[in-house]
Specification:
Oligomer: single chain
CATH class of the largest domain: Alpha Beta
Largest sheet: 5 strands, parallel
Number of helices: 12
Radius of gyration: 19 Å
Shape: globular
Mean pLDDT: 97
CATH topology of the largest domain: Rossmann fold
Strand order of the largest sheet: 7-6-5-8-9
Bound molecules: phosphoric acid mono(formamide)ester, norvaline
Strand content: 5-15%
Order of helices and strands: HEHEHEHEHEHEHEHEHHEHH
C-alpha cells in the first residue's frame, strides 16, 4: 500500500485536519506514558537551519518511544552530489518516516515519489504545512473552529502565505493577503483558492475585521542578500498597533518565528495580549505528534 505523505496541506482533507487538531489537543493534555512509535525512526534532512522544527520532531519521536536522526547535507552524501532519488531509495529502506526541510520544494516531491514510507515537508521554498497545522490547532484552542473566519496575511507571499492559501480551502476560511508589488503568492495557487483568497495592496484593508492576523519575516532563509531591498519594499507592511486596531476586537496575532521586532511586527504586538506566538510554537510538538501517529499506523 502506498504511504500517505504530508508534502503540502492539500495532502489532508479538511476532515482529517480537524481530527488531527482534536487529537493534538488530547495529546497535549496526556500525562501518562504513551509510546505508539516504539522502535520507529524518523530521518530528518535539514538543508536549512531550524530550532522549532528540529526540536519538536525529535522530542515528539522520543516521547512516542522512537527516535529521530538529524541529517545535514554538510555531512551526508546528499551534499556531495548523490542523486536525491538514490538517497530517497536508500533512506526509505532504513527509517520509518522521513522529514525534510529543503531549499527546493521539488526535492520533497522527489523524495515522496521514491519513498516507501511517509514523507513530511518540514518547510520548503513554497510551503510550510507543519507550521500551519500548529497555527490551526492554536486558533481552535483559543477561538474554536476557524470555518467562516477571516485571516489577514500581511507581508511576503512566501511559503507560509502559500500554505495559508491551502488551509483556507481545506478548513473553509478566507485569507485576505496584503503583499507589496513583486512579492505576491503564486498566481495559480491564488486562482485555485477561488473565494477563499482575496488580494489587496493595502495592509489596513486586509486586516479590516480580521479574526486572525499573521505575518512572517520579510526575507526568508536563502534571501538574506535581498534584505535591504525587501526592507524598503515592505516598510508599510508592519503589523503594529494601528493595524491591529482595525482587526476584530478579539483578533489573535500569529507569527511562525523567528521574528524581527521592529520589522514585520512591532514589539508591542508580538509581546502584547493578542499574540499567541508561544502557544503556536509549542503546538508544533503536539500537532506533529498527531501527524506522526496518523501517518505511521501501528504494525499489524
Ligand atoms: N517556525 C519554524 O519552522 O521554526 P524553525 O525554523 O526554528 O524550525
Ligand atoms: N518564511 C520563513 C519561515 C521560517 C520558519 C523562511 O522560509 O525562512
Amino acid at each position: 500500500m502506498n504511504p500517505r505523505h504530508f508534502v503540502t496541506f492539500m495532502d489532508l482533507s479538511g476532515e482529517e485536519v480537524r481530527s488531527l487538531i482534536h487529537r493534538a489537543v488530547e495529546l497535549k493534555r496526556l500525562k501518562t506514558i504513551y509510546e505508539p512509535l516504539k522502535n520507529k525512526v524518523l530521518g530528518m534532512i535539514f538543508e536549512k537551519s531550524s530550532t522549532r522544527t528540529r526540536v519538536s520532531f525529535e522530542t515528539g519521536m522520543i516521547q512516542f518511544g522512537g527516535g529521530a536522526i538529524f541529517l545535514s547535507p554538510r555531512d551526508t552524501q546528499l551534499g556531495r552530489g548523490e542523486p536525491v532519488e538514490d538517497s530517497a531509495r536508500v533512506l526509505t529502506r532504513m527509517v520509518d518516516a522521513i522529514m525534510l526541510r529543503t531549499i527546493s520544494h521539488r526535492t520533497v516531491e522527489i523524495f515522496a515519489e521514491h519513498s516507501r514510507v511517509p514523507v513530511i515537508n518540514g518547510l520548503s521554498d513554497r510551503f510550510h504545512p507543519c507550521q500551519v497545522l500548529a497555527d490551526m490547532q492554536t486558533y481552535f484552542e483559543h477561538r474554536g473552529d476557524i470555518a467562516g473566519k477571516t485571516v489577514a496575511w500581511i507581508g511576503d507571499g512566501n511559503n507560509m502565505c502559500q500554505t495559508y492559501i491551502h488551509a483556507a480551502q481545506q478548513l473553509g476560511f478566507t485569507v485576505h493577503i496584503a503583499s507589496p508589488p513583486g512579492y505576491d503568492a503564486e498566481p495559480e495557487l491564488i486562482r485555485q483558492a477561488g473565494v477563499h483568497c482575496k488580494l489587496t495592496r493595502d495592509p489596513l484593508a486586509a486586516a479590516d475585521g480580521a479574526d486572525l492576523v499573521v505575518t512572517d519575516v520579510w526575507a526568508s532563509m536563502g534571501q538574506e542578500d535581498e534584505q535591504a531591498l525587501r526592507a524598503k519594499a515592505f516598510a508599510d507592511y508592519q503589523v503594529n498597533a494601528k493595524l491591529m486596531a482595525v482587526a476584530a476586537p478579539d483578533a489573535l496575532f500569529m507569527h511562525c518565528l523567528p521574528a524581527h521586532r521592529g520589522e514585520e511586527v512591532s514589539a508591542g504586538v508580538i509581546d502584547g495580549p493578542q499574540s499567541v506566538v508561544w502557544d503556536e510554537a509549542e503546538n508544533r510538538l503536539h500537532a506533529q505528534k498527531a501527524l506522526l501517529e496518523f501517518l505511521l499506523p501501528p504494525d499489524n
